[in-house]
Design a protein that fits this description.
Layout (H helix, E strand, L loop, with lengths): L15 E7 L11 E7 L8 E2 L29 E9 L10 E9 L4 E4 L13 E6 L2 E4 L17 E5 L5 E5 L12 H136 L2 E5 L4 E4 L2 E3 L9 H21 L8 E2 L6 E3 L12 E3 L7 H21 L10 H40 L14 E2 L5 E2 L1
Antiparallel strand pairs: 1-7, 2-3, 2-4, 4-5, 6-8, 7-8, 9-10, 11-12, 12-13, 14-15, 15-16, 17-18
Helix pairs in contact: 1-2, 1-4, 2-3, 3-4
Length: about 500
């Protein structure tokens, strides 16, 4: 055995084939641990290998380590890395429930050899021991105070001897039989002659090396020149080949250019023809737009006449069904001289209320008819026995959809619901004219608000007609003046007549 007992085997990360732990200290007594291991090159970097989770054991032995499973960029030739053992005692634990149980900066050269098999190593393990499998055996950290293991280099026995006051001088104890005699004078002379000859040979070798270096430099320069020449020749051949290819491509592009020009000429002729068609279509479109504008004017005039006619008819209905306010404080109104309260019919005669509701229902139905507005809740006007249908609520049976607008012989609930549906129809008429009601249950006041709107609309129509007639009269005056007519011959304007019922006679 030599003084320096050198290791004959390397220890690298790629040699690690197994990981296990012994005598792990549980977090709580009698509760087994769930553990897994991660390997890191640096504490701040993510792991490059992770074992599976070993359940319910303080002596886990994880599956065999395979360097193929390591992440890319790991230095497989390194002998140092970080080992972290993660543990928890929770059942059905998640990843965030595990905490670092052991963190160890491992140097594989500092580990001591245990045995080729764990079952053969009948030795006690300290708490929280980590064991590594590699090179056909198992290794662990050296125990403090132990002189065994591969982490320490074996040394020969040494001793010290006192030498006056110079202190302790170390020496090596050897066998006397191994001691050899010192050199003789003749041997030293031979050595000197040999050294001189060696010096001469070394000087020759140095000069030969210089010459050889110069020859090699010349040869390298020559070879470099030959390589450059060959490269330039190859470049010239490639340039000639590329020139021929570019020339062929240029010819093809000339052919394509001629074909493109011919195609563009055809397309230009086609576009000219299309442009002529477009101009013709634009003229036709202008003519059609003029006709459309004329028809729009006719439509607007017709709509205006329809609006005037609708306003006239509704005002005639107003004259038939006379509505009056008898108490502004209570918003109490009469229709055809019959008082109709607002949704509270206590203390009123049933037949009077039924007749007033019949008049109101018939007036609402006629206004909706002349406005061409389908009511949400259809009305069946039958004087004092009028009724109203609810076709909106689909949960009501077909036989119960008809609600009376009279109380005699009927229950109070259906009657009140029928009155509320009638108020909803009046609100629909108000919404169609962009009017707002303060109280939806005010039946006749809301109806009077609608009729007053049509009265104002009728007055606006009268003003518009007067303005139209005046503009026509001024136009006729200017035309007669241009034709040399006398002012005394000016035709008189015919103003529209407004009837007492609010209608207009043109």
């Amino acid at each position: 055995m030599s003084v320096f007992d050198l290791e004959s085997r390397q220890r690298r990360i790629r040699h690690v084939t197994g990981l296990c732990a012994r005598n792990l200290s549980p977090l709580e007594p009698e509760r087994p641990l769930h553990t897994f291991v991660t390997l890191h090159m640096d504490p701040s970097q993510p792991c490059f290998y992770r074992t599976e989770t070993y359940l319910d054991s303080v002596n886990p032995t994880w599956q065999q380590v395979d360097s193929i499973q390591f992440t890319n960029g790991v230095d497989l030739g390194s002998s140092r890395f970080i080992v972290r053992v993660w543990a928890t005692d929770k059942d059905y634990a998640k990843e965030e429930d595990f905490n670092i149980f052991i963190e160890w900066d491992v140097d594989l050269y500092a580990l001591e050899f245990l045995d080729t098999k764990l079952e053969n190593a009948n030795i006690p393990y300290p708490p929280n021991s980590l064991i590594f499998g590699m090179l056909g055996g198992y290794y662990r950290a050296p125990i403090e105070g132990s002189d065994s293991g591969d982490g320490k280099r074996k040394r020969e026995e040494t001793t010290t001897v006192d030498k006056k006051k110079g202190g302790n001088i170390p020496f090596i104890r050897v066998d006397r039989q191994k001691v050899k005699n010192s050199y003789s004078g003749s041997s030293i002379e031979r050595i000197a002659v040999l050294q001189k000859s060696i010096h001469t040979i070394e000087s020759k070798v140095t000069s030969n090396k210089a010459e050889a270096h110069e020859l090699l430099q010349e040869r390298n320069e020559r070879e470099k020149t030959e390589r450059e020449c060959a490269r330039l020749k190859m470049k010239l051949r490639l340039a000639g080949s590329e020139l021929r290819e570019k020339t062929a491509e240029l010819k093809m592009e000339h052919v394509q250019l001629r074909e493109t020009r011919i195609s563009n000429d055809k397309r230009a002729a086609s576009m000219k023809a299309s442009r002529r068609v477009l101009d013709t279509n634009k003229e036709e479109l202008g003519t059609m737009n003029a006709k459309l504008n004329d028809r729009v004017d006719l439509l607007q005039q017709a709509q205006k006449m329809v609006s005037i006619r609708q306003t006239r008819i509704i005002l005639q209905l107003h004259s038939i069904y006379n509505l009056e306010m008898i108490s502004a404080k209570d918003s109490l109104c009469q229709i055809c001289g019959l008082t109709l309260p607002n949704s509270d019919f206590t203390g009123y005669d049933e037949e009077t209320v039924a007749t007033a509701l019949g008049y109101t229902a018939h007036l609402v139905a006629m206004i909706a008819k002349y406005l061409d507005l389908p009511l949400r809740y259809p009305i069946l006007p039958m004087c004092s026995r009028s009724s109203i249908r609810d076709d909106v609520n689909l949960s009501i049976p077909e036989k119960d959809r008809l609600y009376p607008l009279y109380m005699k012989g009927k229950e109070k609930g259906p009657f009140e619901h029928g009155v509320s549906l009638l108020n909803q129809d009046i609100k629909q008429l108000l919404d169609s004219q962009l009017l707002e009601s303060q109280n939806i249950n005010a039946t006749l006041p809301n109806l009077m608000l609608l009729l007053s709107h049509f009265t104002k609309l009728s007055q606006q129509h009268i003003r518009e007609v007067n303005l139209s007639v005046r503009s026509k009269n001024s136009g006729s005056m200017s035309s007669s003046a241009s034709q040399g007519r006398s002012i005394n011959e000016e035709p008189k304007a015919t103003l529209p007549k407004v009837r007492k019922d609010g209608g207009i006679d043109l």
